[in-house]
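ESCALATION

Customer reports they have been waiting on this structure for their group meeting. Please prioritize. Original submission:
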Amino acid sequence: MTDTNTVSGGTLTLADDLTLTRMGYGTMQLAGPNVFGPPKDRDEAVAVLREVVERGITHIDTSDFYGPAVVNELIREALHPYPADLRIVTKVGCRRGDDGGWNLSRDPEDLKAQVHENLQHLGVDTLDVVNLRLGTNEGGTDEEPLGDMFGALAELRKEGLIRHLGLSAVSAAQLTEAQAIAPVVTVQNLYNLANRQDDALVERCAAQNIAFTPFFPLGGFSPLQSRILTDVAARLDASPQQVALAWLLQRSPAIALIPGTSSRTHLRENIAAADLVLPADAIAELDTIGR
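Update from on-call: job pushed to the front of the queue and completed.
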């Protein structure tokens, strides 16, 4: 049930202690260029995070490899002590090089170390949700066995350092493998109007009460696909970003969004997408993009 103080779009209750607003917020853009180093405007970054909470969003997505550590420390500065209903979803499985490179790091012991770093930098004793980052640096999936990796996180869940587990850049087979080890409450994959290869996984998540959280809502569009989106947006007096987000919310009740920004103005535009109801003819036209 949606609280009256919650942003539009409704909520997902994935466990007794885990309710997320479907319109969430992704913190990736709060760090410096290429998600590395301090923010360009620290005061604005803190203000964005505080407005996220003030507007009723209870779902913040982050990772200690944003910065690295910079974004989690910003979250702590802006929001700690955290509101009782706020849920912070973080990720492990990558480290940053001195040059800002993205280095996949999924050794079980290092995954445990990354969890402890998230705990420290967020200033909490338990993490609400930890997603295991699989796949490639580009966000694609592979079929690497995940038993040892996910098993390490499941151990920390049993110890009480993690409440819930999820997966990012995951295949259907890997989701099945993980579910044999521990419950999965979230899936984060590349998915948008132009990238519909996970349609079946979206339906599976809906059937199994797993939140499906797409990243790159405007990634991978051809010029023709972008023109269709722009034309529909113009007719609806909305931005292409708002239409793309609204389409995702209407695509499945299992979808939760985490659009990111370092600007309060852009944050408000993203939140407004949850109020945008796409008419049937617009949805039909947008659906041609992914065919």
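Sent to customer with the following note: The CA atoms of residues 135 and 141 lie 4 Å apart.
Escalation resolved.
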